[in-house]
Amino acid sequence: MIKNDLFLRALRGEEVSRPPVWMMRQAGRYLPEFMALKEKYDFFTRCRTPELAAEITVQPIRIVKPDAAILFSDILVIPQAMNIDVEMKPGVGPWVPKPIRSAADVEQVIVPDIDETLGYVMDAIRLTKEMLNNEVPLIGFAGSPWTILCYAVEGKGSKSFDTAKSFCFSQPEAAHVLLQKITDTTIAYLKEKVKTGVDAVQIFDSWGGMLSPEDYHTFSWPYINQIVEALEPMTEVIVFGKGCWFALDTMAKSKASALGVDWTCSPEIARNLTGGNITLQGNFDPSRLFTPIPELKKMVHTMIDRFGKDKYVVNLGHGILPTVPVDHAKAFIEAVKEYEGK
Ligand code: CP3
Questions:
Q1: What is the pLDDT of residues 81-97, one digit of tens each?
Q2: Is the pTM of this model over 0.85?
Q3: In the structure, what pLDDT confidence band is assigned to residue 341 with cuts at 50, 70 and 90?
Q4: CA-based angle 45:50:55, to the nearest 5?
């Protein structure tokens, strides 16, 4: 039994004394303890070494004390396992030396055996669960198939992912074959993570908002929904689509336990679009963590009042920025804990 189960209770829609809180990318560069390990080991070494991944996962639990841990890893371990080389270039970010640009390229992409290719993630989960000692739940995650396609085809980060979009629009058949391969791999991967011990999973559709609503329903949502349907019998599933407010109504009708909301959508509009019945997660503007602490705490309390304390998980609207002072990240979490009894 997990001692602090607020997060799981909120995902199940149960009444809580206060909402739970965690931060997307909470294991990261704003923490000096993380930077110390980053100096010694390159990015994928940190992902592939269970002792390092587990240590980085629990750092924020010790330092900023959120109500859930998220396994340190990356969405890009999936394309790596599928025979698509991905590097992390310092100062550049994700880099794919041979991006996917044709049906022939798609044919070279495999649906791998998970134990063989991603067994190191399962080892990291086992070790992390030991270190967490049932204090808080552990979240596992994957990118959405569309977001993974963005990197696999574009070859790097982008403001608009034009190359990835033009691949989908000019070679839709090849795009759908690739999306289905990523979906099949992701389902097998997340199922294995759940069997190994994660308590909930989140699907990050970080680039879903690059698509028009119509294209979203062609190239992103149907694949996310396959993952939701496959995982829902085993665990709680959170879907976070950045910039995807236009799909919240469709998402709310799925079997997802909770939906992530970014800061461009108000709590009232998000509740309205989702019918008021599904748990929502978000949506503090990550840059708002720079607000002076007393005002920051008030803003957090107002956000909780607006979403409502039940069926709600406090979070940022996207990942925490590397330049955020640690005491401001702590204040964000403390503000939620102080909400109790208000
Ligand atoms: O704390 C956590 O949330 C868990 C760890 C986590 C990482 N990546 C670690 C990481 C999670 C959940 C991710 C997901 C991820 N990775 C997403 C989806 C979430 C989002 O922010 O939209 C995406 C799009 C990626 C791809 C990726 N990996 C990018 C764009 C970058 C940043 C590149 C850069 O240098 O700015 C990464 C690298 C990465 N993944 C870092 C961390 C802590 C920073 C680089 C490092 O530590 O060396």
A1: 999 999 999 889 999 99
A2: yes
A3: low
A4: 95
The architecture CATH gives domain 6-339: Alpha-Beta Barrel (3.20)
CA 258 / ligand 1 centre spacing (Å)? 21
The per-residue pLDDT for range 287-309, each reduced to its tens digit, is 999 999 999 999 999 999 999 99
Ligand 1 — pocket residues by CB below 6 A?
24-29, 38, 43, 70, 72, 74-76, 88, 93-94, 141, 143, 157, 204, 206, 319
Q: For ligand 1, atom 2, which residue shows the shortest CA distance?
A: 25
C-alpha of residue 268 to centroid of ligand 1, in Å: 29
Helix axes 114-132, 172-196, angle to 10 degrees: 40
Q: How far is the CA of 191 from the centre of ligand 1 (A)?
A: 22
Supply the DSSP string of 52-118, one letter for each residue.
HHHHHHHHHHHHT--S-EE-S--TTHHHHHTT---EEETTTEEE-SS---SHHHHHT-----HHHHH
Structure tokens at 52: 């390092």
202, β-bridge pairs:
141, 238
Instruction: Give the whole-angstrom CA distance, residue 93 versus residue 95.
Output: 6
Task: Quote the ligand 1 centre to 74 CA distance (angstroms).
Answer: 6
Mean pLDDT of all residues in 128-147: 98
Q: Which atom of ligand 1 is nearest to the CA of 318?
A: 21
